[in-house]
Write a sequence for this structure.
């Protein structure tokens, strides 16, 4: 609710201020509007800071009870019957926009808008009759005014109001400079968007069938209303949502990025947020998302030293025709990224993608692109379908590491390459063990080794949520690494706090063969996955402040 106020200003001071402020705009009064001769019409930037409010100015119907400030006026007598639209998009102050018929002092409101959706500019559409004069008033919600941008135009007819009549995007980049969606409708069969949990308003549709496998970015930046963007696959009436975004910026426009497969048709729906004023002037652009720099075998990310860790957005990653078939999956996989390492030692080297948010496959090769020899491969040994692979390396030999997936997925890849610590293990006799916490029950195992893993947050002021990853293997036996840690391996550590977990290695054996399980050497790796800032913290040097130590227990 607006607060009423009153004040007295001496006449001399008022005249002095007027002299300093300068003259009012020529169209400051209802009786002297700027005549719009033809449409489209553009007011490129009118200073309304010195505009006044007449005693006879009307109260706006979209802001009842208030006669708003800094009014300027326009008039138009269209030579056609149809729809006319006016917009203050691009103005730098909070506007109200009204259209009237009648004469000054006896006006009839035809249309009024305060804020277009969540934006502070205004947008009206109204029916006009040839030969009738309409007065358009622009006011300021606050008594300040600013630089006014006004566009008056006839909305361009559009045919993509329905899903079945989507505008075809033939190539990228694509740009829709301005489509009036105020008269767009909502079909009964229009889907409910997951990002708003609602069937939004004024939908218009686009379709694209890319000739490449990668990713596409679509944005409504520049639109003058609150938009929602959704991408789908499937047929109208039976759509599957791929992605959805309500607001990607402070101006309530939207942006989506999503992976695409060559030859698949994607339907893009642009709607007005159901809690806003519906449609407006839609600006839509679509472009290809560039692939990661290490998308191809010939341009791998070089790992200079181990341990090495990286978080990488694999959106836009592609599949090369020459990508090899993985022995652990029987497939070439999809959307691969590549790394290379030339170790300065001979021994064991490990690769893990634990902490990634999608299903990965890791394969390791020697040789050259197009003529590779597989050294090791793993599909789902890691937590939540991630991968862990350990292999023998020779000093001075270059190894190519490929991360791909089987389900055409992309996301946030967390990869770590390092040299595991090893312990000599005494031969043990297998026994049947029930492992608590519901991890593995009733299996035949032999306890090989127990370890203590300590995670410390050395940051002096900020809390962190850390993910601890543990993997292990032994020469000659199948080993299960049981991690008695927190759910999902996550721990929230306050400044200076630590958390300790006990990890036990068990050797799995064939119950029909009661021979001794005799590995000579076991390997354990405990390391950080992604580190997340706890709300209110500072992410500066987040990973460097977290330490992981492994201690052998008797």
């Amino acid at each position: 609710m607006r607060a009423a106020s009153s004040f007295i200003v001496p006449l001399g001071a008022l005249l002095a201020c007027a002299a300093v402020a300068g003259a009012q705009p020529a169209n400051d009064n209802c009786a002297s509007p700027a005549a719009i001769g033809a449409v489209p019409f553009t007011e490129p930037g009118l200073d309304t800071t010195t505009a006044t409010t007449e005693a006879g100015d009307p109260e706006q119907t979209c802001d009842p009870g208030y006669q708003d400030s800094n009014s300027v006026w326009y008039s138009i007598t269209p030579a056609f019957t149809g729809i006319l639209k006016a917009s203050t998009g691009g103005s730098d102050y909070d506007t109200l926009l009204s259209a009237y018929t009648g004469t000054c002092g006896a006006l009839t409101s035809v249309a009024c808008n305060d804020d277009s959706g969540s934006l502070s500019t205004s947008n009206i559409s109204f029916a006009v009759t040839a030969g009738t004069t309409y007065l358009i008033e622009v006011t300021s919600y606050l008594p300040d005014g600013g630089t006014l941008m006004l566009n008056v135009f006839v909305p361009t007819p559009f045919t993509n109001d329905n899903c079945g009549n989507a505008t075809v995007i033939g190539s990228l980049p694509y740009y829709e400079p301005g489509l009036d969606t105020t008269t767009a409708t909502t079909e009964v069969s229009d889907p409910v968007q997951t990002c708003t949990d609602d069937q939004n308003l004024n939908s218009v549709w686009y379709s694209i069938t890319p000739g490449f496998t990668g990713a596409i970015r679509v944005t409504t930046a520049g639109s003058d209303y609150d938009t929602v963007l959704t991408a789908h696959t499937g047929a109208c009436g039976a759509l599957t949502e791929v992605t959805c975004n309500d607001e990607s910026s402070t101006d309530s426009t939207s942006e989506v990025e999503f992976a695409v497969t060559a030859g698949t048709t994607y339907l893009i729906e642009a709607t007005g947020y159901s809690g806003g004023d519906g449609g407006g002037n839609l600006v839509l652009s679509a472009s290809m998302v560039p692939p990661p720099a290490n998308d191809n075998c010939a341009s791998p990310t070089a790992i200079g030293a181990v341990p090495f860790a990286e978080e990488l957005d694999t959106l836009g990653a592609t599949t090369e025709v020459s990508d090899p078939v993985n022995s652990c999956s029987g497939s070439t996989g999809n959307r691969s990224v590549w790394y290379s390492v030339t170790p300065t030692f001979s021994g064991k080297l490990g690769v893990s993608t634990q902490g990634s948010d999608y299903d990965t496959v890791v394969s390791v090769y020697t040789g050259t692109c197009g003529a590779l020899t597989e050294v090791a491969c793993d599909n789902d040994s890691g937590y939540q379908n991630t991968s862990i692979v350990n292999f023998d390396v020779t000093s001075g030999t270059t190894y190519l590491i490929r991360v791909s997936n089987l389900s055409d997925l992309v996301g946030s890849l967390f990869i770590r390459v390092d040299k595991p610590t090893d312990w000599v293990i005494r031969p043990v006799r297998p026994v049947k063990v029930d492992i608590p916490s519901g991890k593995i029950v009733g299996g035949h195992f032999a306890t090989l080794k127990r370890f203590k893993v300590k995670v410390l947050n050395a940051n002096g002021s900020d809390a962190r949520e850390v993910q601890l990853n543990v993997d292990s293997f032994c020469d000659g036996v199948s080993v299960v690494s049981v991690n008695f840690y927190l759910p999902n391996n996550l721990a929230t550590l306050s400044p200076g706090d630590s958390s300790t977990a006990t990890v036990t290695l068990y050797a799995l054996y064939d119950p029909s063969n009661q021979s001794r399980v005799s590995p000579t050497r076991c390997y354990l790796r405990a390391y950080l996955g992604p580190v997340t800032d706890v709300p209110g913290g500072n992410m500066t040097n987040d990973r460097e402040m977290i330490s992981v130590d492994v201690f052998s227990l008797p």
